Here is the input.
Amino acid sequence: MTKIKSWVWLRQIGFMLSGMLLVLWMYITPVAGQDAVKTLRVATEPTFPPFEMQSDKTGELEGFDIDLMNAVAKEVGYLVQFDSLPFDGIIPALQSGTIDAAISGITITAERARSIGFSSPYFKAGLAIAVREDNTTIKNFDDLKGKRIAVQIGTTGSKEAANIPGARIVTFDGAPSALQELVNGKVDAVVNDYPVTLYAIKTAGLRRIKIVGELVTEEYYGIAFPSNSPAIRDINFGLYKIVENGIYEGIFQKWFNNKPQQLPLIAPALVGAKADVSGITTGGGTRDTVFNLLLRRLPQGALVTLLLTAFSVFFGLIGGTLVAMGLISKNKILQWILRIYVEFFRGTPMLVQLFIIYFGLPGLFKEIGLQWSLERFPAAIIALSLNVAAYLAEIIRGGIQSIDPGQWEACQSLGMNSLETMKEVIFPQAFRRILPPLGNEFITLIKDTSLTAVIGFNELFRQGQLIVATTYQAFEVYIAVALVYLALTVLSSVMFKNIENFMDPIKRGKNKAKTA
Ligand code: ARG
Here is the structure.
């Protein structure tokens, strides 16, 4: 009977596996006939309205860049397939050739043109400073000295902000998070592309924010390609054609309700610069600086990672033990509440929990008239500890309940009270059983702290991202980051193994015998 059942089971797994293989195969084999029309895989970071965003209604990509790319491609007979990527991943992806092009409000700069190629400029923009409406001290770029500034990672805004003396820069994955940070009062200003900030204020209804001073820079957006990509010429031709035939004006009108600006053929940033529009790849000279950057910044990041881990384990252990006690207590209501807590924090992604605590709560408090907002560090520790405690509570509860209840009775008959029993008899045994899963949790936590990068923490992973954002050497940098994580986790494995041995009465006995 059970034999037949296990057969059915195996067959089902077989079906599932072959289904998965089929899907995989469809992904990696090119569709026949596709050669006839050239398909461009175009990357975009779609949280940059009105250039690229997800439509509220259809969920599809939309925006000025999207319309423009489709129109240009159509003009020269290309098919476009959009791919969403983080902004700081776009240039590495172009370099490695995993994508054929990118349109993402990307500013043409001489530095970027050394590692990727650009089309002719298709939009004139520039950086603007945004502050809260009640701010009267920041009026122009010079006033930003020593201020707290939020930016999007890998952007010209982040580069410009990095040059401000004494400024404390907080980096986010998307412009919306940077602006949210400003609304929540945790930074003094945001340096971001003018049209995007303006759109957020005027159209998306971002409240209590204003743009001050003159534009910090004048910038031109271009479609980006791998260096020397043959598609650049075709796309430039398409761009020229849609400007000629008025399609460009139509798209501009649609998104900006205005007549388009005059565009130069070559971005001023490239005129006289050492790079041409088709791009020249970097020589070996940058390797050394990448290495130096890694040496300088990864230890800083590792330290932040370790601090986050240590604090969260500390609070998580205390919290987890208390929750475990509650879970095995006789109080049904308490049990019930703690169950909900554990299920919530185990059952929802830590990333979401982080966002709720860091971005969500301050908004809620503002709404009800409280001026309260959590600083980055406590917010991260609270989110991580709450999450860790939920997991540890289950581990600790399981450990305690795995001890034979007969021992409680035995202790009782020896006249011990329950606190003593717990402390002297049950917990020491339970602790040994808890140790291995505790070690697992610890290792998971070390890695999970990388999630705090999304709220602007410069931990290990974010330090790596920041280095890639200026050097574009994704492979070397992320491998180095991975190795540092590995070193940290291997070290903690060893540490836990040692504690386990130490707690093992038999092994400990042997060691004592040996040394004696
Ligand atoms: N223009 C700026 C730059 O190239 C910001 C672009 C950000 N684009 C985006 N889709 N998030 O650095």
Summary: The two ends are 58 Å apart (CA to CA). Residues 285-328 form the longest helix (44 residues).
